Amino acid sequence: MSQLDKVFADLPDFLTVRELAEITGKDRTTMYRWLRKGEIPASRKQDSTWLISRDQVREYMERKYGATDTASPDLPTGNS
Fold it and tell me: Structure pTM?
């Protein structure tokens, strides 16, 4: 199991902005900006709540960083 698999294994099917920020190691303001710009795959409900698919975020990270292991120097680990 890769590090990326381990990061996503225990997460719920849909993530909160807070969880997304923890995974990427970025602050919530950055996450909201990325979500509005469409950088992170997600959709909005009528009440402005973001629906962020765990699996889509994982796939996005694999594509964006070209890695399946969070040991990659460019891949956010959620620890920074």
Answer: 0.73
